[in-house]
Amino acid sequence: MGDTQAWTAAPGAAEQARSVLAAAWSCAVTAGGAREEYVGAHTVTDEGAVLLTVPEDSALHGAALCLPRQDSRAVLEFADVAPVAVRDRIRARLWLAGRLTPADGALNFHPARVVLRRSCGAVLVDPDEFATARPDPLAVAEAGLLTHLAEAHPDAVERLTRLVRPESLHAAIRVLPLAVDRHGLTLRIERTRAHGDVRLPFHTPADDLGQLTERVHALLAQASAAGCPRTLQRQRADGDG
């Protein structure tokens, strides 16, 4: 069952792609017929180029050195994984296709093709838009923010469900924070055999952690003033029945 909440302002595809790239800690690289996975091996320039630091004896390094320039094509894959343990934790996947070039003991990668796959489908991102886009200002801090909200403030998460339409909460057994960006907070509503997401928009974008705190407090104030729907415990009983 999908959400029935109206979706509002959200990051565009280019911004979300840059956010996935900024927050990712690992990546898979396919080049020269070899596929290797690396953790903590990449950095990103302001223009979205990727610098890979890999062992000199790796297949990837050998491919970049030995293949002719026209054959030094590579594909980099990044997964956007929800930091909170929800169902279907892969929120998005990002594929970058381009060429690898050796540079000062590392490998430079300039994407020529960018594909972002989200739950709503895949979209081809214009490389120029990708290069000029900037990551969401909360992207790097998001994991810590969401895990803290889920682990230390479950009461606040439950209070936020007062802002969710009752039909979206039907048969819900668990609600957890799924994502946050400068435009709003997304909740994952899990049922016995399905799940859906609802987005709670901020009244204005949050450009830093201080503004995010104010926006979340504003949502909680709205929730406190709203009528309280059935509790999740009651919904759990209904769903199990």
UniProtKB/TrEMBL annotation:
Highest taxon listed in the record's lineage: Bacteria
InterPro entries assigned to the protein according to its UniProt record, in alphabetical order: DUF2470 (IPR019595), Haem_oxidase_HugZ-like_sf (IPR037119)
Pfam families according to UniProt: DUF2470 (PF10615)
Domain DUF2470: 143-219
Name of the molecule in the record: DUF2470 domain-containing protein
